[in-house]
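Entry type: protein chain
Record version: 2
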Amino acid sequence: MRAIRRRAAARRAVTALLTGMLAAAGTAAGASEAAAGELTARPLTAAEPALTAGEPVEGRLAGGEAVSRPEGAGGASATLGKLKAHGRAVITDGSATTETAAGLFEMSVSGGGSLLTYGIDMYSSTAQGARYEEVPWADTSLHDNPEAGHIRWILRHSYPQVDDLAALADRAGASQLTPQTAAAGTQVAIWRYSDLGPDGGRPDVTAVDPNAEKLADYLVKEAEARPEPGPSLALRSRAAAGRPGAALGPVTVQTGADHVSVAPGPEAVRHGVRIVDARGEEVTQARDGTELWFDVPEDAPDASASLTVQGTTQIPVGRTLADSGVHSAGQAQVVAGSSDATVTARATASWAAEGAAPAVSARPDCVAGALAVTVDNRGDAAFTFTLGEEEHAVPGGTAETVAVPVGEDQAYRITIAGAQADTWTFSGVLNCATLSAEPQEEGLSVHSEPVTVGGDSSGQHGVNLAETGSDGQLPLLTAVGLGLLVLGGGALVTVGRNRP
């Protein structure tokens, strides 16, 4: 039998990243809670908050710790629902075949609104109730896919964007199409572009229904490259820093909404921080291109604060959503239709009267297979911090980005500890690659350096991770290590240091 595994050997090796002792729970979880092969860098307990992607840590903490997801692009947060319309598809890999559901999902947007989506990783699991966040293609398996733009064409020229199914059937050479067969054919066509093999070849996936298969063939043949759509709402430069008595920023709004509301967080209100525009006028609304600043009073004590931008708009067709669960990496989704929906983005600012004034942020780097941690020091003294076992010093007026390698589908928890007992902690799961069917590796080996995890120790074979809504019990691989465990050598790689 074959088991679903990563298509590259490097991504099958999992790195465990943390400060101090690694510990991972050995409790099996359902597909809605964890993906097969997940390795937890440090167990997150029920008492710890399950923050949404990009939610900032508010407050300059002395001796304390707050947990945040890596900086996301902002936009829609949604919960995966049931398949609205679907048929069946067959995936063939050599002599192995898998039949799976293929079709159109419904998603409910936090704060109001709904989405229709298709999957873009046919071997990955889906779970009803899983939480997703809007992200750019760069934060999904499409980041290195040269044919990703063809998926957007398919979405624009098929169901549900095209609801005249008789006309669509005529163009595809099908005798007839129903919502079920149209959804199945569209999903199969998308998978043929989203799940390219290591050699760039398309996967062998076919629709069971002959008319759905004709639609899939037609869409693949006619598809043309289209550019990635812009975000529904995003903020550029989401972490600012500087001195009290100055305007910190700018934070630039990107949105398809006519306008969005702007509100300071509770810490900003407490310290008398105003949110202003480039002219220094206080603002409560913004639009695409507006620059926002944190206007910090001169007598404000060293601290940090946030702002929230929120609006209502449709999520662009072709925009992607990634599973934001702390312990899971479900099948990424691509938007096929949207009602008016609530979209949200947040930014933070920190300030200090003297010395270092760091702004700390993190984002996934799918190209490097890492979490990119950036420290932008707007002060006049070096900011020293510890990341893993490495100590870094960022001179005043410079920014440094450190790439922390993270294994594909690995749950990570990464802490940046400052010299003044300030800490920033980011947790999440890196989900940048599609899955492929490869020969199963046996056994689990754990070493202090490097860490390698292979195989399925549960003895369960032939688990169909592509099956929609799978609720089978999937094994949670565990490992224990000391210090910062890395894959193949140095865990911390300085990507760049910039001087303005």
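Comment: Confidence is low (pLDDT under 50) at residues 1-67, 437-500.
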